[in-house]
Specification:
By secondary structure, the protein is of the alpha+beta class. The chain is built from eight helices and eleven strands. Strand 6 and strand 7 form a beta hairpin. The longest helix is centred in the middle third of the chain and has 18 residues. It binds adenosine-5'-diphosphate and magnesium ion (MG).
Length: 231
């Protein structure tokens, strides 16, 4: 199944899967995400939102845009058809203003996930060690502090648990100031699923789930990006 999406990207001479494609592939592997539908017009966006159910999020889908929110390409928490139509226009205008040459396929319409602790999980390939998984807390502070843990694939249960506990921000996952603790078992499961997934797919060069929302019950990736190896 996932290979059909990989093949289509290859046929189009692409190595980058967009958010909609990346989430489809992850979903097929049993990795929890907020599935997204591609809408190519304002009317399609409104129809997709109605089918998914409110509240929804709209995000620009473009092979030329890596950081969608930096260009005004993400609008959260839309509660009705009017808000979706308006957000669609706002995204198109913002993208045209900031990146006029970007090719835009449309918008990804998806469920607005409930708030959780933002974490990131990803895979990069090391020339020596092969696929390596990364885990950390999300957000600007962590980008600055680079508070992340790495393990070589394949991971076992202890590796997954070690990654969670190794980051300096671990106390955040344990709950603080009245915030509920994160479901560590769900995060371990996610890391082990990712390990299996990348082991089964040597054609994947890089993978980013940024962010994953960690809850007291479960965890779900709300943004995803998969890069294939050069053919
Ligand atoms: P990018 O990283 O390309 O700027 P994201 O898809 O990560 O765009 O969206 C930016 C932020 O919006 C996320 O870090 C997250 O806080 C929030 N977000 C994105 N998608 C959802 C969603 N489906 N539900 C709730 N919040 C979301
Ligand atoms: Mg993101």
């Amino acid at each position: 199944m996932s290979s059909a999406i990989f093949q289509q990207a290859r046929a189009e001479g692409r190595t980058l899967l967009n958010e909609v494609e990346s989430k489809q592939v992850l979903q097929q592997a049993g990795i929890p995400t907020t599935p997204a539908r591609l809408a190519r017009s304002r009317a399609e966006a409104v129809a997709a939102a109605g089918a998914i159910g409110y509240p929804v999020v709209l995000k620009v889908v473009s092979p030329d845009i890596v950081h969608k929110s930096d260009v005004g390409g993400v609008v959260l928490d839309l509660r009705d058809a009017g808000a979706v139509a308006e957000a669609y226009d706002r995204i198109m205008a913002a993208v045209t203003a900031t990146q006029p040459d970007a090719r835009v396929l449309g918008v990804a319409v998806q469920t607005m996930a409930r708030p959780g602790i933002e974490v990131i999980a990803g895979m990069t390939r090391d020339r020596q060690f092969g696929p390596v998984l990364m885990f950390g807390l999300g957000g600007v502070l962590v980008e600055v502090l680079q508070d992340v843990a790495f393990r070589i694939v394949p991971l076992d249960e202890r590796d997954a648990d070690g990654m969670l506990r190794e980051i300096k921000g671990f106390p955040v996952l344990q709950g603080y100031r009245g915030q509920a603790p994160a479901d560590l078992a769900a995060l371990r499961r996610l890391l082990l699923q990712l390990s299996d997934f990348v082991e089964q797919h040597p054609e994947i060069e890089e993978l980013d789930l940024n962010p994953v929302l960690a809850y007291s019950d479960g965890a779900t990736a709300v943004d995803a990006r998969i890069l294939l190896r050069d053919a």
